Amino acid sequence: MLDFLLNILNPVQLIGYVGTACALISYQCKKNRNYFLFQMGCGIAFTVQFALLASWAGMLLNVFSIMRGIIFALGDKCKKKFYLLLMEFCFAASCVISCLVFGEKWWIAALLFIAQGGGTLAMWSRNGKTIRVTQLFCISPLWIVNNVYYASIGGVVCEVFNMLSVIVSFIRFRKTGYDKT
């Protein structure tokens, strides 16, 4: 029992719990700008945690997720296709670098690219419902694979609660309550 408590209260795991809190708050934000800012906070926490767990694809993808949060939070100033292509390129490059330089498992990198690339396209739509559906059926399930593989308790908890939070937001916001700008 003591080993279990020491593991879940390990400082590396606590960093993941901070990321989890940011993610949970993000799905209860009605305005996309606030959603993107809390997602950026989530990316910062998980960048640090994945670096400490040697999840290189997870770390690099979260570095660029921070950039994505900033770009999306700026709104229409960054609504040019150049920014979308830049983000998608950075996610693809992160996966290649994580495999070639750090020795990441190729299938982990590929799953995480699908999650982040798909999530970025959903966020680009600026449609709250599209973002949440993508989170529920694509992003979270794929990140759970990485989090289980690298023993990120906070990561698993984050994705399970992300999925539950999305379901709660569907109930709260109904059909018309999403910010579409």
Description:
With 181 residues, the chain is mainly alpha-helical. Helices cover 80% and strands 0% of the residues. The chain is built from 8 helices and no strands. Helix 2 runs parallel beside helix 8, helix 4 (56-73) runs antiparallel to helix 5 and helix 6 packs antiparallel against helix 7. The longest helix has 22 residues, at 32-53. It is globular. The model has no long low-confidence stretch (mean pLDDT 89).
Helix content: over 70%
Task: State which percent range the strand residues make up.
Answer: under 5%
**Overall mean pLDDT:** 89
- What is the 3D shape? globular
Low-confidence stretches: none
Q: How far apart are the first and last residues' alpha carbons, in Å?
A: 49 Å
Order of helices and strands: HHHHHHHH
Secondary structure tally: strands: 0
Radius of gyration: 16 Å
**Structure annotation, total helices:** 8
Query: How many strands, what sense, and barrel or not for the largest sheet?
Result: none
Q: Classify the secondary structure makeup into a structural class.
A: mainly alpha
Relevant terms:
181 residues; mainly alpha
What layout of secondary structure does this protein have?
Layout: H1 2-8, H2 11-26, H3 32-53, H4 56-73, H5 81-100, H6 106-124, H7 128-149, H8 153-173
Helix pairs in contact: 2-3, 2-8, 3-4, 4-5, 4-6, 5-6, 6-7, 7-8
How would you briefly describe this protein structure?
The protein is 80% helix and 0% strand. With 181 residues, the chain is an all-alpha fold.
